[in-house]
Amino acid sequence: MSSHASSRQRAPVLGGPASTVETACPLDCPDACSLAVTVQRGKVIEIDGSHKNPVTDGYICAKVRKFGERLYGPDRILHPGVRRGRKGEGRFARVEWDEALGLIVNRFQKAKAEAGGASILPFSYGGSNGLLTQDNFDAQLWRRFGTSRLDRTVCAAPTGAANQALYGKMPSVTYRDYPHAALIVLWGVNPSASGIHLVPYVRDAQRRGATLVVVDPRATPLARMADVHLAVRPGTDVALALAVHRHLFAGGHVNEAFLREHTRGVEQLRERAEPWTIDKAAATCGLDPDAVRRFAELYARSSPALVRCGWGLERNRNGGNAAMAVLALPAVGGKFGVRGGGYSMSNSAAWNIDRTWIGSPEPETRLVNMNHLGRALTEYTDPPVKVLFVYNCNPVATVPDQRRIIRGLERDDLFTVAFEQVMTDTALYADVVLPATTFLEAYDFAKAYGPIHLDLGRPVVDAVGEARSNADVFGELCSRLGLLADEEPTGELDLMVRILDALPPAVGSDLRAGTSPVPACGTAPIQFVDVFPRTPDRKVDLFPAALEAEAPLGLYRFQPDPATEQYPLTLISPASDRTISSTLGELARPDVKLVMHPEDAAARGLSDGDLVRVFNDLGDVHCTLKVAATIRPGTISLPKGLWRRSTGNGLTATALVPDTLTDLGAGACFNDARVQVAALANA
Ligand code: SF4
After folding, report:
1. DSSP 3-state of 327
2. Which atom from ligand 1 is nearest to the alpha carbon of 580?
């Protein structure tokens, strides 16, 4: 489907023959686009979409079209370096790879001898979501050396826990089936900023008569085109979903036969939903009761009805229960079994890839929640963190409690390694920096998690400077630390072959041949026809005992808003159309704006364009105010993934985010930041 006309200008031709090379985008985005990269004189001159992946359909986001600016930009790390200035200054002396790796190996061995392997903390996330770039030789290294383990829960942990417990991560509705839906509910997701290829499918469904409901505190582009926009108060989605459940139960809109045959725990869910009348939920969520009633009725009476559960609803103290309640709706409402009906969530588990090629079991070493990085660096004593190794990740920009993280990184007795593509806010604090390849300079497997699509990305140009791939560097560290048996592979190509051999034979051979493989479930499964829950008894577990025990108040319960008189405003930091998490945050962007509703601005005597200070007890952020009715009153917004250079005082939204954890999955509570805003001059 081709509703996006490409309006790009081709880059000026510099001379010499140009060739176009096919590869795939492995960045942390649901779409995993197929790319056509134009290369001239060994340099990337244009990046565009190809038609190999039908969802890509020849167009890509503006973010990756600009990726050449990262590849060749002034922030690129070109060679290994050893710190010369103070931590944070970013002054490094160039050294050879051999010297840098030798230094790291010595510090690893010293830390282990003095305080045990757990004094080394590896820190990574989805800077590349590719199968090659994370959880391979790196996992082998950390497991065999006995370092601390990292609980990677900064994103998708509560929704993942809910999806796993309810459905065993059953494959879900893919983009191409959206046009079959009569009702689409986009809940906590803004595809216009991330996962853009969903947008034309939603628009196509609307043209065919589908009703669109958007649940989001902001008037996102699709919310403005929706039939019902519920600008929910952040952190209250669970109440809204439970009110819909109650409406389904009370109105006789449930499919009793389906519930008997395919679910467990419905009575407990019914009981927990019972207090949530539409009026009570509307008051809690800050919504018009009539709009909530209309939504509940639409959901009760529409078929096929599709709920797209996003990640916006999980970023608060009630995020796990919100995901549980939202994902349970199609089971209670009897919405499965038809094309375009059911739920749509991450499809990352659709391929059933369990990384059998990592040749070591996970040891029982200390588990550090990544949202507690600041605490780990400044408070942990048994043992203290002596070595921090950061890769695929920029925690200063992305992890809660920014100031505490910076304090930790400033420790003189901490040895920090940053293995990075560009000089990030975190890399500035490193003792040793190592240059990493980007996906345009190395192999990787791009696995979509919106569509069901898997592709093999190839290097389109030689590595810039002395950059090396993750597989090569972690393989060599394993080798230098004596962690490999004689015959074990260490290099990127060895690892790629190992992965291809470990995939189902048909998948591996399709990838080798450059064609798109199809998993056992197909690429557009109908839930409860083609795929079923992957729970032990193949039933939907609506009231999993383990999650009831894990949630502080139990399942389907609501924890009240943390606002205080001093800090009454809810700060959210949603994904933007500029960065992929914090990736590309180094590129120049227009002045970053704090978005505030006119009522809140008037109450504070603030006007559009004012310089303001957003603050709470954790920190403050100086930026420019944008007054707009595109956000609900009481909620303000700064973009996710900002680098420190983007604001007036070098702190970003994460400086205002507490390191408290979600009710399920131990995720980050970004949207539980409660703040005040004042004019900068008066603050
Ligand atoms: S970030 Fe997403 S939309 Fe952009 S090129 Fe990569 S997969 Fe496509």
Report:
1. helix
2. 1
Q: Which among 507, 639, 651 is positioned nearest to 574, based on CA atoms?
A: 639
- Model confidence, pTM: 0.96
- CA angle at 152 for the pair 464 and 66, rounded to the nearest 5°: 35
Place of tokens 């996710």: 640
> Is the Cβ–Cβ distance between 330 and 185 less than 8 Å?
no
The number of beta carbons lying within 10 Å of the beta carbon of residue 301 is 13
Question: Residue 485 contacts by C-beta under 8 Å, 6 or more apart in sequence?
Answer: none
Which three-class secondary structure string do you get for 610-665?
CEEEEEECCEEEEEEEEECCCECCCEEECCCCCCHHHCCCCCCHHHHCCCCECCCC
Pocket of ligand 1 (CB under 6 A): 25, 27, 29, 31-33, 60-61, 63-64, 196, 580
Q: How far is residue 206's CA from residue 118's CA, in Å, rounded to a whole number?
A: 54
Q: What pLDDT, on a 0 to 100 scale, did the predictor assign at position 354?
A: 81
- Determine the Cα–Cα distance for residues 663 and 651; give it in Å rounded to an integer: 27
Regarding beta strands 673-679 and 611-616, do their DSSP bridges make them parallel or antiparallel, or are they unpaired? antiparallel
Residue 645 neighbours by CB under 8 Å, 6+ apart: 586
Q: Which letter does DSSP use for residue 82 in this model? A: E
Atom 6 of ligand 1: nearest residue by CA position: 25
Terminal Cα-to-Cα distance of the chain (whole angstroms):
52
Q: Could you tell me the distance, in angstroms and rounded to a whole number, from the CA of residue 58 to the centre of ligand 1?
A: 12
Q: What is the pLDDT of residues 631-674, one digit of tens each?
A: 999 999 999 999 999 999 999 999 999 999 999 999 999 999 99
Closest CA to 667 of 323, 181, 381, 178: 323
pLDDT band at 490 (very low <50, low <70, confident <90, very high): confident
Nearest-CA residue for ligand 1 atom 8 is 33
